[in-house]
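Researcher: Checking consistency across runs. Here is Acetate kinase again:
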Amino acid sequence: MLAECSPVILVINCGSSTLKYQLYTTDLKVVTAKGLISKIGEDGSRVEHAAHGSKHVRVMPVPDHHTAFTAMIDRLIDPEVGVIKDISEVTAVGHRAVHGADTFVKSSVINDEVIAKLEECVPLAPLHNPPNLVGIVEARKLLPDVPQVVVFDTAFHQTMPEYAHVYALPYELYSEHRIRRYGFHGTSCRFVNQRAADMLGRPVDELKMVICHLGNGVTIDAIENGRSVDTSIGFATFSGVMMGTRSGDVDPGLIFYLNKQLGMSLGDIEAMLYKRSGLLGVSGISNDMREVEERAEGGCERCELALEMFAYMTRKYIGSYAAALGGLDALVFTAGIGENSPSMRARICEKLGFLGIAIDSDANEAPGDDGRISTRASRTAAMVVPTDEEKMIAIDTLRLTEKARAAAA
């Protein structure tokens, strides 16, 4: 049944065939409801909604995003499974956007000008920005009088110095066509950056930190004094460490070889690098780290190789970023693999003693409230810090909408 009503903040992450949402109280302390609408525009569309400690699932036709948004609102105000009496109780909406290029260096209150500039960024993220824009358009239609904010995954990394984000290509490609390193998972890294500093009890602007966002997508981020100074994913989203299905770093010459010698089209090569590589490609089993680890324990040599490669590539980035930072105060693990795989954390840290990191095996298996998995004698703290991208979006949404209301008063 519906609880006593109070103002709420709605956070939306709209993909090409999915709509994720969370509803926060305005003090951001409680998620009152969350949901996932999947297979939009496909057969077997599902509406999953969790509230009041239980989960409700319904298979129903969801032919388009407008229907998905309507289904979300219906769940939120439903007398049995909802948490608010009327959608007018939503006081602000926060949206995730993948790519803001170098146009957006921080989150922004949405208006027509912001939408136009976001549309200009579509060529840089043709798979991600269009559905993000659809989510914004639909939310503004259904909640026209509610202030809305967009939070960009790329924004956090726009503090990188020019020597770190410019590629060694003809400079005109950068100056005229915006070809440069952008970085992703910035919303996650920004949340973890501040949270790690709080857990260490030190000011964020005094720390040198490497954050390992290890999930189906992987970002290694070098942070100095609270600012991103380098990041492993660059212009596209497959560079850096190998991922669930993405290759990570490869020699660009390989693309020409595959095209000329093996007759693969550019489309075939792109599909291979994005969808058939990484853990899946090497193991031949799965893109899920849990399954790869399980099969490796059972003697699968290719799964063991995939694990060794993943740890090795991650360790190389940690070492290079420690050098770029001129030292290291904290090594932070986050996201699905980073938070939930003690064995992978141990593999990665195995040869990082030169950085002053020694893993406490008991703490690594069950990190305490301070997140530490390194020994107390370690010069550099190794930590597990759970990420919360939705919370970061909600924080920005609350901050910017309150600022806008104060300015208008």
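Researcher: Does this match what you'd expect to see?
Model: One thing to look at in this run: The chain has a mean pLDDT of 93.
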